[in-house]
């Protein structure tokens, strides 16, 4: 699985380099390239594996795979801004507003979101226009004010809320903040092939939640060098997390149960689902 | 023309209200509604008129018309941020980051950009998936790092450049900053109908430039109350504008020539083009 993940990440990087080459060498173009480098590429890999499961060619699937990475990169650049999470480091490097300035970071994020929709609707991607339009529509919904941005807004509101969030509220928040894009990624291959996305949807919902629980675990147990970003921020801010509400042992146990549910949901694909099942197990073993 | 513009604006507002109603009443949803209210709706009107010229139903055209207004609104919310143009007033009201805060304004802009792509790829919009995917693709290009965002970045860079921009450089900058979205709007009806977009493209290029020249004229001659936003900022900042480079009289003359070119370009549509020709003349007569 790690070899496949690394190979997928390399092809995604090469495709992103190619689509970004006509953007010139202004600050925004440089920032777009900078912000889309590195990372685990898990969302792109979910797209590529979902496509492979349904017989969709990798050359088609690379377009939505790069789209979701551009969208994810935009969200990180804006989340890191001083007015938002105010983070100086990301993926072991200075964040965009630290390396350039805030205006550049705002514009880089904005341009990366546009790029995501350019890539997902690109004629060399999914074969039919109907499918490309549908991928753009569902990506827009997963990203916007009823999906990722809503989750982010709830997360910010939680920081100043008089009482810590409940487990249910955090679960809802995370379903938007990280869950929506993970679900879009995992189901995209089924959508491209016109197949039933339900098994992958179930897989993705469980995986997304496990992913976030592990993020909370890393925030408590990880070290900043390995994680490539600040850790311990949530605890220092007194924010409710899965770990603060459940305790470390129970949070880890929940993540493990969710991963088993995720793996079970796609057992209908037989041996073809091995890689996605390994991805799910990797998600709760990672320390970064 | 003013009646039609007002009627079009009302239908666009009503459609936007409808699509935003399921977004709830959190800060981001409130900010999205706030930021999409008011304005002249010229871009939406170009979409509606372009559609009407090509026999595309208004119920279809309202989707891309609202998409371009959502996209335009996002760009204003982000442009007004302290790290960008740092404006407190917009359309006669406090800007989003003044009324709420910077984090909300960043998220509102982000969610409005997503909304634009949700609307443009919506199945009730253009009839074929191929067309919706194409509208999403071209909108993404017009908005992104080779279109509007590039123009905005060049504009910010110009503020700290050692020498003022040349006329050619300002023309290029404006082609991205305002021209790309105006061109997308004016050609969208032809794209929806599968007709040749060339006449409307020529119209839009001339109109977009005239539009920006008039903006520079208003910055010098207008008053803030009528304009609903700060004026005199460019002159105070010593920024090169069409007016500073050409003088007020010559700038106005150029805008008039451009409007005549715009009107001529769509004369092939005969009397059906009357309204778009009046829109062009309105653009250089407006004081806000």
Automatic annotation (TrEMBL), chains A, B:
State which gene encodes it: ispA
Question: According to the UniProt record, what class of enzyme is this?
Answer: transferase
Q: Which cofactor does it need?
A: Mg(2+)
Q: Which GO terms describe its cellular component?
A: cytoplasm
Tell me the Gene Ontology biological-process terms attached to this UniProt entry.
carotenoid biosynthetic process; chlorophyll biosynthetic process; photosynthesis
The record's function comment reads: Catalyzes the condensation of farnesyl diphosphate (FPP) and isopentenyl diphosphate (IPP) to yield geranylgeranyl diphosphate (GGPP) needed for biosynthesis of carotenoids and diterpenes.
Report if keyword Coiled coil is assigned.
no
Q: What family does this chain come from, according to its entry? A: Belongs to the FPP/GGPP synthase family.
What protein is this chain from? Geranylgeranyl diphosphate synthase
The species this protein was found in = Roseovarius litorisediminis
Tell me which PROSITE patterns the record gives.
Answer: POLYPRENYL_SYNTHASE_1 (PS00723), POLYPRENYL_SYNTHASE_2 (PS00444)
One Pfam family matching this protein: polyprenyl_synt
Q: State which pathway it belongs to.
A: Isoprenoid biosynthesis; geranylgeranyl diphosphate biosynthesis; geranylgeranyl diphosphate from farnesyl diphosphate and isopentenyl diphosphate: step 1/1
Please write the reaction equations for the catalytic activity of this protein: isopentenyl diphosphate + (2E,6E)-farnesyl diphosphate = (2E,6E,10E)-geranylgeranyl diphosphate + diphosphate
Q: Which UniProt keywords apply?
A: Carotenoid biosynthesis, Chlorophyll biosynthesis, Isoprene biosynthesis, Magnesium, Metal-binding, Photosynthesis, Transferase
